[in-house]
Design a protein that fits this description.
Blueprint (H helix, E strand, L loop, with lengths): L3 H8 L3 E3 L4 E4 L4 E4 L9 E5 L2 E5 L5 E5 L2 H9 L3 E2 L11 E2 L3 H29 L7 H4 L2 E4 L4 E4 L5 E4 L10 H4 L4 E5 L2 E5 L5 E5 L3 H6 L3 E2 L11 E2 L2 H11 L1
Parallel strand pairs: 4-7, 12-15
Antiparallel strand pairs: 1-6, 2-3, 2-8, 4-5, 5-6, 9-14, 10-11, 10-16, 12-13, 13-14
């Protein structure tokens, strides 16, 4: 249970949004002014990792979502109601651009930890066990922001991990605890959302840990290697 002062501090955070606030849309390079149709007192809504809530005085706040913020909103008795959520589709406030982007930076580490916790909780609920340390020591972890690769003939490409989300949603639950294999390489999506590539087939070992087969793209199974020199050396060490 949060104290009243800490609860008030959280609920008074974020950016206050009002009619007429200028918003920039980078997709179409346009600026438009916000216009709300209704003032939904003591309600909140979320979209794409952003939350809007309106307090009892009708003041609207928008902030990057976090467990701490959601807990405070629910503890204060706000009710969920579908409504427009500013800044949730790459748009941002023209006059508070730096504030908005800094808000994302400040909460990045917190959300990464929350994401891992959500993944592990889901894995516990669905019987995805921990992979042995000796197994993980032979794995290459795919960076969450993707990886540039190079093929034997020199062409380069970029591969994206099966789990790319930064917030826990249905795209994540569809991949956790899954594995696949191709051309002597295996990919598995671990308990915390990390994706690992390992040399060889490990079907029985992964099944014993509760993992199930699902058709996934398996990096490094078609002649490609990491384009980054240090990452390439790491992969070559693991498969030598």
């Amino acid at each position: 249970m949060k104290t009243t002062s800490s609860l008030d501090s959280i609920l008074n955070s974020g950016i206050i949004v009002t009619d007429g606030l200028r918003v920039y849309w980078p997709q179409c390079k346009e600026v438009e002014s916000l216009k709300f149709n209704h003032r939904r007192i003591n309600t909140y809504c979320s979209n794409n990792g952003v939350i809007i809530w309106t307090n009892g005085d009708g003041i609207r706040h928008v902030a990057v979502a976090s467990h701490k913020l959601m807990d405070a909103i629910e503890e204060a008795g706000y009710s969920y109601e579908n409504q427009y959520v500013p800044f949730s589709n790459w748009d941002y406030p023209v006059d508070q651009k730096e504030v908005w982007f800094q808000m994302w930076e400040d909460i990045k580490k917190e959300r990464e930890e929350e994401f891992k916790e959500d993944c592990e909780k889901y894995s516990d609920e669905h019987g995805f066990g921990s992979l042995p340390n000796e197994f993980l020591a032979r794995c290459f972890a795919i960076p969450r922001n993707g990886l540039e690769v190079q093929y034997l003939w020199g062409a380069k490409d970029r591969i994206e991990p099966a789990i790319r989300a930064s917030s826990f949603d249905c795209t994540v639950t569809g991949q956790l605890g899954r594995f696949y294999y191709n051309n002597g390489r295996s990919l598995c999506c671990g308990r915390d959302g990390t994706q690992y590539v390992i040399r060889g087939y490990h079907v029985e070992e992964l099944k014993r840990a509760g993992y199930t087969v699902r058709g996934l793209f398996v990096p490094f199974s078609n002649g490609e290697v990491p384009a980054n020199e240090s990452l390439r050396r790491e992969w070559e060490r693991l498969v030598s």
